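Appendix B. Raw example, untouched.
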Amino acid sequence: MLPSSANPDGAAMSYAAAGVDVDAGERAVDALRPYAEKANRPEVLGGIGGFAGLFALRSGRYTDPVLAASTDGVGTKLAVAQAVDKHDTIGLDLVAMVVDDLVVCGAEPLFLQDYIAVGRLVPEQIAMIVKGIAEGCQQAGCALLGGETAEHPGLMEDGGYDLSATGVGIVEADKVLRPERVRSGDVLVAMGASGLHSNGYSLARKVLLEIARMPLGGHVEEFGHTLGEELLVPTRIYAKDCLALAAETSVRTFSHITGGGLARNLERVLPQGMEAVVERGTWTPAPVFKLIASLGRVERAEMEKTFNMGVGMVAVLPADDVDRALAVLTARHVPAWVLGQVRRAESPGDGGPGSRVRLEGDHPRF
């Protein structure tokens, strides 16, 4: 037999009383609209608020188009943003993680759709998150085609949120960059990272916040600003830089250096029978990496497996295109240098992840 009333107060229940505020959702859409509308392209049909985003692929512009898609999130960097109550840059990280995977194969990012899950919907917070996403889309040259914000009371705490996004890009079939293009003698050109980017934050937070007990608001002399500011430096968006290289050089492919570090991500773009040699002596990782390694007594192998160590993207190029590539990147204000080279594998390796990428030498002043 059902109880006569499950509500001890006897009051009528509502969705809002259960923790979901539909009106707040509408206010959030109104608040984010000015930012989202700035991340646009001529191919976008309609505006914010429809059930689906529409994007017209103009006939005649492409001969044999291939669509590329990528989905990603930001990881536990979100915990830092939430701890310091700063939400206007985390969207840049989200866009970077998606579009910089797309350009690895030479695809131009066309549009992105985001998903934001929150414990309690605060319109002003959502607007700041979307502001960053929209700015990232503008930097990447893609449209913010739409998205979804979901309120999850009881599942997520108030003030907590998680982000993910899917991006779609396009490339002509005969211009797809892939490992099969890579040749022995090709040169690795590194593009500098802006910081930790969006990987390794579980280890970074464990060392800096739990073991060393460093306050997020504390000034760190090596950084010239607070720890929280350092940890929230947005991930560099390389999309337009990579597309410029693809237009100006005979680049073979790119490698986006994310989780797994240089070795594991570089290996993903090497054909069988080839290995890459990376010279540590060509760059000095930023102070944040040294701080994590020293305070946490983290071994070099673990650091290089977890973090980008200062290299966010790598271009694989024919040797005679290197000078041109460096000139293009310098003109675009991207720090770049020759990182190493590709050669025929001297041995099959141990078969472990990253075993066909050899990191040699030592970093100066690290």
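End of appendix B.
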